[in-house]
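Hey, resending since the last one bounced:
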Amino acid sequence: MMEARLYEKTDKHAVLCRLCAHGCRIAVGRRGICGVRENRDGTLYTLVYGKLIAEHVDPVEKKPMFHFQPGTRSYSIATVGCNFRCANCQNAEISQAPKDIPSMLVPEGFNRGETFEGKLGSDATPYEAAHEAAETGCSSIAYTYTEPTIFFEFAQDTARVAKSLGLKNIFVTNGYMTRQCLDEMKGLLDGANVDLKSASDDFYKKVCGATLAPVRESIEYMRALGVWVEITTLIIPTLNDSEEELKETARWIASVDNAIPWHVSAFHPAYKLMDLPPTSESTVIRAREIGLTAGLKYVYTGNIQAGDGENTYCPACKTRLITRRGFIVTSNLVDDGKCPQCKATIEGVDL
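The structure tokens again:
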């Protein structure tokens, strides 16, 4: 256990967490909405420092990050916990473990038989995580699977070691962190894929237990800090799949920066939304068309087989520059950040 960062002590031994936009006021003996930050006698502790529930080597495209060191691998890590309660979460068994299933058994391979209150996950230090990333040939570390904001302390310390090894750092995030949190990651965080789940505040409240404005603010602030941002919207039938809502999301992204890649992905039934159908391929393809019509340079489709929405095209001359098969890059013609045909700039990191 480690004392948390980014909090204030208040009256009656309560604490005010400044890590995410929920701004939880936590009484003694209680935890914040994330379920992994606890007030013990007036001091806030993180319960998941160094407790990794997932460690994998993934293509960076799986994050998805299509304009960030394409064709490289990213060492992906997570702890349990999340500050959202998304009804469609595909990783609910770990993201919601401290809240929904407090006595959940550890998955195979991780100290089987112990509970969250004991030790859920595999012990790791920031040094070990970063060096494992380097030794496995990864070019970056992705803090992902659950919400990296809630294991901020471990992510920050690991990111520092990663930087010393020449690795880059990526957050795959719901974007609900505070500016203070992002300021603490300045110079450490190189890229982020942010879930912009909807253009509707009502959707955020009903489906996620959050609000829209802080997510948009985080995206804008990340860009101001020089963080490379890509955005993902999971299209869920009847909840956020209307043409007008997709147009509003595309318009807003374009207003921030039309070079931000937008990933529009198909929903598959999960967690508490098992009664909804999968998103049709035609809806996802139409969403891509909406994004391009709104002026976005790069719009990608995910979780479908149809179309060629996983490839990168020059926004100026339409030459196919990066060819992908699933998460695998089979060809990359980008030349020092330029289209080899028309010399247009192709935005991204280490293309």
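Residues 101-119 have pLDDT under 50 and may be disordered.

Sorry for the duplicate.
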